[in-house]
């Protein structure tokens, strides 16, 4: 992600989070669809992850509406809340990657599905990409203070 958006940078930050949380929610569906015989404990966990990502996605949308409604001029308090949301989203993605590692290690159904293993590895890399973007955003915001 580039950092040259000027006064629209807060909106760009929110767009990134909104996009990746929608992606991660969809990824939970992809895994369930690719592994129809997935163990119930993992199906339930993926459903819970989907719900959690959808809730975080909704928070990003709410902040996008706030920023746009404010004409891109936001208070320091709102900016700090946005950065807290980015930090939360980062932690959420880190925990999801840990879950994906557990799924890969423990699911017999997944281990017997080479396509699903390839897709899972791709999904993990995408979440890791978001983690890197979020870390860069947070670092950049700390430097701006």
Helix/strand layout:
Elements: H1 9-34, H2 40-69, H3 76-106, H4 108-111, H5 114-144
Helix pairs in contact: 1-2, 1-3, 1-5, 2-3, 3-5
> Could you say which overall geometry the principal axes of the C-alpha atoms support?
elongated
Multimeric state of these chains?
single chain
What is the helix fraction of residues, given as a range?
Answer: over 70%
Could you say what the CATH architecture is? Up-down Bundle
Strand portion: under 5%
Order of helices and strands: HHHHH
State mean pLDDT (0 to 100 scale): 90
- CATH classification class: Mainly Alpha
* CATH superfamily membership: Protein of unknown function DUF2935
The number of helical elements comes to 5
Q: How many strands in all?
A: 0
Stretches where pLDDT falls below 50 for ≥5 residues? Answer: none
Report the end-to-end length measured between terminal Cα atoms.
20 Å
* Count of individual domains: 1
Derived structural class: mainly alpha
Main beta-sheet strand count, sense and barrel state: none
The whole-angstrom Rg is 17 Å
CATH topology: Ferritin
Structural account:
By secondary structure, the protein is mostly helical. It is built from five helices and no strands. The two termini are 20 Å apart. It has one domain: Ferritin (Up-down Bundle), CATH 1.20.1260.120. The radius of gyration is 17 Å and the shape is elongated.
């Amino acid at each position: 992600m580039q950092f040259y958006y000027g006064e629209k940078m807060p909106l760009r930050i929110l767009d990134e989070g909104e996009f990746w949380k929608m992606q991660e929610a969809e990824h939970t569906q992809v895994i369930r669809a690719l592994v129809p015989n997935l163990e119930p404990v993992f199906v339930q966990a993926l459903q819970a992850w989907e719900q959690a990502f959808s809730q975080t996605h909704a928070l990003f949308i709410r902040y996008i509406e706030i920023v746009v409604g404010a004409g891109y001029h936001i208070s320091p308090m709102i900016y700090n809340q946005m950065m807290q949301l980015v930090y939360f989203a980062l932690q959420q993605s880190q925990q999801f990657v840990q879950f994906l590692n557990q799924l890969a290690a423990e699911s017999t159904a997944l281990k017997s599905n080479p396509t699903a293993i390839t897709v899972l590895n791709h999904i993990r890399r995408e979440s890791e990409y978001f983690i890197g973007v979020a870390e860069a955003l947070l670092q950049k915001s700390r430097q701006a203070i």
